[in-house]
Amino acid sequence: MRQPTRNLSDKFFLILKGMAMGTANKVPGVSGGVVAYVAGFYEEFIYSFQKLNLKAVKLLLAGRIRSFSYYINGRFLALLLLGELISYFTISVGFDILIAHYPITVWAAFFGMILGSIYYLARSYEQWNATNLSFLAIGAIIGIGTSLLDPATENPNLLFVFFCGMISISGMTLPGLSGSYLLILLGNYVLLMVDSVNSFLNAVVLSLQGDLSWWHDPEQMNLLLILAVFIAGSITGLISFSHLLGWTFKHYRSQTNATIIGFITGSLGVVWPWKREVFKTNEQGIMLIDNNGDHIIENYQRYWPPLDSLNTWVAIVFVAVGFLIVYLIDHNGNKANPA
Fold this sequence. Notes:
2 strands, globular
């Protein structure tokens, strides 16, 4: 695959798309891969991660940094990563506040974005036949099925943590499947995305203050080990999924695209705006809290909204806003990557 030439405007929009991916990846039920797919750079995204192979390692170890960067399409990945980092410290912070106070409105916007993605992807897909429709159905069934599953209990076993890392990265590589939501289903979202991350940040803060007492804290060291294994699993999954998807695109392009559209369609059940949080409780029925003092979400209970409520119609407006956002992303993606 030839690496495209990008001007300053293209690079700026790529950073914005990275910010959108970062925000989407943080939401349980939304996949950052959807942004890449709709915006028209998904195959380049997968291609770049395919290049993280033995040859790339040899170039890096030999100190050939420029050759290594070119080989893995480093400028493209760096701009996306920059966008995700900016999102983490800006948009994601604001998003946490918004979803805490206006959950239905935020979910409605994401629901509209998924609807818009399905519409534009289905419209541009020109190979509908019985076989590809069956792949679409399979993808949709898998997506809907995940939204109906009950979460498992927390499991700190390191082999299972490694497996969680491999599965969770699918939210970045496979549009329509949310890595965060899959971690909730696997029962390890709090352990891997809250407790272990907080432990790492705490260790960094203490170290900067010259306090290395965390080295002698068995619980903290165990959480850091869990985080390291999770990251190793994520890297393994990222490279493995990228190679698998690259192979399927090469040999079964139309079927792969149909399945991805099915995945995205199935994710509508996960991002349905009108739902109540179901919190995790102990045997006595007392709601459990994480290290931040927040209640632990176990699942969601969906319901049909009352049509005589102003809040319902405000949410419907935000569904339309979400749809419009995807239209703008799709329009820019088609200009930047014409067929």
